[in-house]
Amino acid sequence: MTELSTAPGLSTAPGAPAPPVSRAPGGIPTEVFRKQLAEFSAARGELLAADRWESQDPPVRELLGAAGAAGLFRAAWAVDEADRPRALWHAVELHTAFARLGNGAPGAPLLTHLDVATRLLATLPAAPAGLVERALDGRTTAALAVTEPGGAGSDLASLTTAVRRDKDTLTVTGEKWFISNAPYADHLLVLADDPEAVTGSRTGPALLLLEATAPGVARETLDTSGHTGLTGRIRLDAAPVHTVLAPGGHGLLRLMRHWIHERVMVAVRMTELASAVVDHAAEAAHHRRTFGSALIANQQVRFRLADLSAQVLETRAAVHHGIRLLAEGGCPMAYAAVCKYRAAELLRTAADEALQLSGADGYRTGHPAQRALRDGLGLALAGGTDELMLLQIDRG
Ligand SMILES: Cc1cc2nc3c(=O)[nH]c(=O)nc-3n(C[C@H](O)[C@H](O)[C@H](O)COP(=O)(O)OP(=O)(O)OC[C@H]3O[C@@H](n4cnc5c(N)ncnc54)[C@H](O)[C@@H]3O)c2cc1C
């Protein structure tokens, strides 16, 4: 009988030939980067151990520092326009590799770091000089604070956090929550309403840079079912604005462009998390015995795993098309939404079924499917919910 994990072509692990890349000056070829990632993880078993990422105080700064020092962020960084395809595929490699480390948990702060502390900040001309460079080296990090406890996550026109002028100083007052990397950030990018046009000539949401340790800024780690220890609540009480990154009326526009990129990258991460749990489930089904034979001996089990493998391959193909569109500089917002929506659906299904296949063992904290299910539910909300993705797809 053909066993799933040994059948040619059925493993969902990527490992396929690297997509074509341009090799701009300073860029390293994809194969070299893959090797670098493998060496990085092999040397940091303790840092990447799954149980450390189940605590309320996971080693986020240690990981970012180590990854920066090893050059992993710079390897996924485009030095110029022509270098963008190579950098994007390296980011895919990075998220793919980290989906299989520490039950996928350490991949979350890395994604936020790459997308917010380096990529988003670099698109904002007003950002202080040197900030992106330091983040690329893993010496500083930043968080993007948009969502509010009152429910401004989907409806960003109803922000209650606001910026005001107090003599010569701009200050922000309000509250944000579920902010990825907030407990570990040096800088906060805060979306705040500007009802009096104090940041420019228009009213509406402005994007502001705040020092995370400034007076009036209080942060605490949230107690959540997934993304354990990785998101935070921020209270702002007349906290001073360091820099206006985008003035009133322009903040959202900047973020809409940012979210196209981030949603495709989150879709990469979700697809690879799904791939990892399906492969783990297939492997475990060889060892688990019921009614005198290996679980994998049941055709129903093999068909289920084969169907999940097919879904992973289909979603990966769709998401990689999103990366190609980003590389060409023109991924439509609706397509990024398709990627995120489909990958979220895949991750939930794969994690749910992988957990069921593992029996009670799968229900244990520390089991890859259980962690993926908890994180998958959060990823279906983060950066825009499934329903918001459907709204964007509907609009076209
Ligand atoms: C793990 C994780 C990480 C996160 N990281 C960040 C971060 O770094 N920065 C940040 O700012 N936020 C972050 N968030 C918050 C996330 O972006 C929001 O939770 C999300 O945008 C939804 O906003 P909300 O929670 O306010 O829900 P609401 O906007 O109140 O929505 C509640 C429900 O109503 C649905 N809904 C809303 N409008 C409609 C509609 N018109 N039609 C149909 N259904 C609708 C929503 O889909 C949702 O199911 C994170 C969340 C999680 C779980």
Automatic annotation (TrEMBL):
UniProtKB keywords = FAD, Flavoprotein, Oxidoreductase
Map out region (Disordered) in residue numbers. 1-28
**Protein origin, superkingdom:** Bacteria
Pfam families from the xrefs?
Acyl-CoA_dh_1, Acyl-CoA_dh_M
Q: Which cofactor does it need?
A: FAD
* Stretches assigned to the Acyl-CoA oxidase/dehydrogenase middle domain: 143-236
Record's InterPro entries?
A: Acyl-CoA_dehydrogenase (IPR050741), Acyl-CoA_Oxase/DH_mid-dom (IPR006091), Acyl-CoA_Oxase/DH_mid-dom_sf (IPR046373), AcylCo_DH-like_C (IPR036250), AcylCo_DH/oxidase_C (IPR009075), AcylCoA_DH/oxidase_NM_dom_sf (IPR009100)
Ranges for domain Acyl-CoA dehydrogenase/oxidase C-terminal = 249-395
**Protein family according to the UniProt entry:** Belongs to the acyl-CoA dehydrogenase family.
- Name of this protein: Acyl-CoA dehydrogenase
Q: Which organism is it from?
A: Streptomyces polyasparticus
